[in-house]
Amino acid sequence: MRRHCGRYRYYLRPTSQSDNVTLASTILRHREEWGRTYHKFRGGTNDYWGPNDDQQNNQLDLGHHMMTMLLGDRLYLAPIDEKGQKCSQVLDVGCGTGIWAIDFADQHPEAQVTGLDLSAIQPEWVPPNCHFAVDDVEDEWTYPADHFDFVHIRCLMGSISDWKALYSQAYDRIAPGGWLQHMDMAIDFMSDDGSIGPDHMLQQWSQTFIEAGEKLGKTFKITDRAEQLVRETGFVDVHKKVYKLPVGTWTKDKPFNACQALKQIGLFNYVYCLEGCEGWALYLLTRVMGWPIEQVQVFIAKFRNALNDRKNHAYYMVSLRTQKRALYAAGRSAGFTQKIQAIEANVDNGTAHNHDYEADYYDHIAE
Ligand SMILES: C[S@@+](CC[C@H](N)C(=O)[O-])C[C@H]1O[C@@H](n2cnc3c(N)ncnc32)[C@H](O)[C@@H]1O
């Protein structure tokens, strides 16, 4: 059963995949630990580590601005509108506060944008073409095959136990010719001038969290592994861009990558780390690593001191991959290829839509 509550669709699967029960008031509850609140979707059984309170949500919104600036004030790089195509269905997986989905919906009034998250932390007032649902994205998606033109994933490092399965679900739900964009952080602090050596506090921090992610079974090293996984899943046209994200304002005026506003991004990142670190650490270091809370608090204090030390010229890498679900598989008949080429010519003229491909693709398979 599925019902709507305001703009939300709430899902709960207490007995079986097909029996979704609406329990809006339950879904809005949270659990509390160490003075912070955490999601309680399905009793909080998904061991997502981040709090869902205002402090963490403000930090997520700051992260959104930082990541958007890093892309040169763009929300995405996937060429979704390159050939005059229109996006009609868009999914943001693990949408957090919904800020990316809301901005995308504003920019694309023709699209229906859905954001999924474990927590109902999205605002009340959103564009009419933007909707949110509370769900675990590692469960079987409730959307039909070939439904989305664009699926967006950002900053789910340390949150997913089976990335291949997530990519496969995205692949099946993306229409042929549609795109997946995944942007994520490698949480490994480093420097080019030796200010962050292997024993540095920021390196100890990184290695501790990488270890915690592996112990939890939800890797923080997804940026290293993603490309092979998406190719194995069947995506094509895989393009990767890697950015250095500085922590603080230490970068010289001359930008070291394409972005013009690196000092400002670095300042945002400094505040992002300062505000975020307690929320990153509490669950992972106590529940997963088994540290006493006092040790965690000292570790957080040392991390903050290291962030404040202007001798440190730290950065970490952010990578963005765009990949496409192929329009048609190799080895099709010449007739089919000609048909698709004709549709592609129409797309070049701006007269076709992604779903035109879809219809012909399936007509042909049925032949
Ligand atoms: C670090 S935040 C990133 C939020 C957003 N993608 C952004 O870039 O602003 C990770 C988000 O993923 C959500 N999340 C983690 N695991 C999830 C899961 N299995 N299903 C749905 N949401 C999940 C969390 O609740 C959190 O809001």
UniProtKB/TrEMBL annotation:
CDD domains: AdoMet_MTases (cd02440). This is S-adenosyl-L-methionine-dependent methyltransferase. It holds the Pfam family Methyltransf_23. GO terms for molecular function: methyltransferase activity.
